[in-house]
Amino acid sequence: MTEQTIKEGKTYAVVSYLTFIGSIIAIIMNSDVKNPFTTFHNRQGLGLCLSFLLLGYFLGQFDSWLISGPFLFGFGLLLVFGVITAASGKMVLIPILGPLYQKLFSNIIK
User: Fold this and answer.
1) Distances (CA, A) of 29 to 21, 24, 39, 109
2) Burial class (CB in 10 A: 0-12, 13-18, 19+), 35
3) Could you give the CA distance from residue 1 to residue 71 in angstroms, rounded to a whole number?
C-alpha cells in the first residue's frame, strides 16, 4: 500500500472509530473510492461499536459499577488504540477481536 493511499484514507479511518454513526458515515464515504486502508479501519471501528452496543446492553442490566466500569475502561482503551493506529497510518489489528471483525465484515464492507 502506498503512502498516498494511506494519506487519502486517514481521515475516514479515524472517523470510523467515532461512534456507530461515525462508522456508517465512513463506510458510505469510502464506498465510491474503495480505499483499502479506510476499509480495514471501517471493519475494526464498526466491529468495536457493535460489540460495545451489544455487550453494553447486557452488562447494563447488572447496574453495578464493578461490572460496567472495567467494561467501559476496556472498550475505551480499544477505541483509543484504534484511533491512534489509524491516525499514525498503520494497519494493526485490535487485540483479541480484530481478526474476528476482519473476517466477519469482509463480505459486507469491501
Assistant:
1) 12, 9, 11, 12
2) buried
3) 35
User: Do residues 65 and 52 lie in contact, with contact meaning Cβ atoms separated by under 8 Å?
Assistant: no
pLDDT in tens, 24-45: 999 999 988 889 999 999 999 9
| The three grid cell numbers given for residue 11, joined into one nine-digit string | 481521515
What cell numbers appear for 86 in the block? Answer: 489509524
> What stretches of 1-110 show up as alpha helix (H) in DSSP?
3-15, 19-33, 36-59, 65-87, 98-104
Q: For 18, which DSSP code? A: S
Q: Which of 57, 59, 17, 11 is nearest to 37 (CA)?
A: 11
C-alpha distance from residue 31 to each of 35, 66, 77, 108 (Å): 9, 41, 28, 11
**Gyration radius (Cα) of the chain, Å:** 14
